[in-house]
Design a protein that fits this description.
Low-confidence stretches: 294-304
Shape: elongated
Pfam families: 6PGD, NAD_binding_2
Structural class: alpha/beta
Keywords: Gluconate utilization, Oxidoreductase
Radius of gyration: 21 Å
Organism: Nocardioides thalensis
Family: Belongs to the 6-phosphogluconate dehydrogenase family.
EC number: 1.1.1.343, 1.1.1.44
Helix content: 40-55%
Largest sheet: 7 strands, mixed
CATH class of the largest domain: Alpha Beta
Length: about 300
């Protein structure tokens, strides 16, 4: 299979490598010429045989919308665009309808796996017509975890089904991270326990709370037991907000996920210990930036 990949950042670059390792021919384009295979989006499209398949992995919102609009002018009937970024599901119907005006197919795909996806594979949640998904299936098979039949699911034929499922996945992730973080803070504060990293490590085997997030937090607190190197500040990337909005629209009670989202807002006002754990987990699984205290003489200490 030949496929074009737009966006070669933390996720896209590793996805290109994983697909190439599986034998696919991948032409990548990025605004950073050091990682790009071609010098323009037009050159990427020209390098692909028909029917052309182009996978977009750029930030959600305007960057994705403008990229898809440009691809609409470059592609033709029978070609396919895959939006694998974290777009809001409501954007997908708009993009699909616009591309359909020229007979271009559209598949939306939620991708989970972070910076570890190259080694472990990616969980893929896709939406769109089955005939469109078939055109990109070799890429799906290359990217998904190789040791399981799970990790790849057709969430629905309507555009947006995949991104909606990924949105809910990330909302659940918010709540799980918050629970681990609050438990870590309580253990840290207690005078009864002395070996918090070992306690968390012990939960990784045989307990009902074991998970990959627990593995990542355990590794983080083994590296920095009290998370002194981090500020208790955690961003939200959008999907938590969208999940709560969708819950309101569908009258679904969402106490825990909503509370975990609001906790992140709190982190921007106070240096919350629990938010240090959230920041550590986000950095471990996704390579997300963390906020550290400035060095003496830096911005926080102008008089030193």
């Amino acid at each position: 299979m030949h496929i074009g990949l737009v966006g070669l950042g933390k996720m896209g670059g590793n996805m290109r490598t994983r697909m190439r390792n599986a034998g696919l021919t991948v032409v990548g384009y990025d605004r950073n010429p050091d990682v790009s295979d071609v010098d323009s989006l037009a050159a990427l499209v020209d390098a692909l045989p028909s029917p052309k398949v182009v996978w977009v992995m750029v930030p959600s919102g305007d960057p994705t919308r403008s990229t898809i609009a440009e691809l609409k002018e470059l592609l033709g009937e029978g070609d396919l665009v895959v939006d694998g970024g974290n777009s809001k599901y409501t954007d997908d119907a708009v993009n699909a309808a616009s591309l359909a005006e020229k007979g271009i197919g559209f598949v939306d795909c939620g991708v989970s796996g972070g910076v570890w996806g190259l080694e472990n594979g990616y969980a893929l949640m896709y939406g769109g017509a089955a005939e469109d998904a078939a055109k990109v299936m070799p890429a799906f098979e290359a990217l998904k975890p190789g040791d399981t039949e799970d990790g790849l699911v057709h969430c629905g034929s309507a555009p947006g089904a995949g991104h909606f499922a990924k949105m809910v996945h990330n909302g659940i992730e918010y709540a799980m991270m918050q629970a681990y973080a609050e438990g870590w803070e309580l253990l840290e504060k207690s005078e009864l326990v002395e070996n918090v990293p070992d306690i968390f490590s012990s939960w990784r085997t045989g307990t009902v709370v074991r998970s990959w997030l627990l593995d990542l937090l355990t590794e983080a607190i083994r590296e920095d037991e009290h998370l002194d190197k981090l500020r208790g500040y955690a961003e939200d990337s959008g999907e938590g907000r969208w999940t709560v909005e969708a819950a309101i629209e569908n009258a679904v009670p969402m106490h825990v996920i909503a509370a975990s989202l609001f906790a992140r807002f709190t982190s921007r006002q106070d240096d919350s210990p629990a938010m240090k754990a959230i920041a550590a987990m986000r950095n471990q699984f996704g390579g997300h930036a963390v906020h550290t205290e400035p060095p003496p003489g830096g911005e926080a200490n102008p008089d030193v």
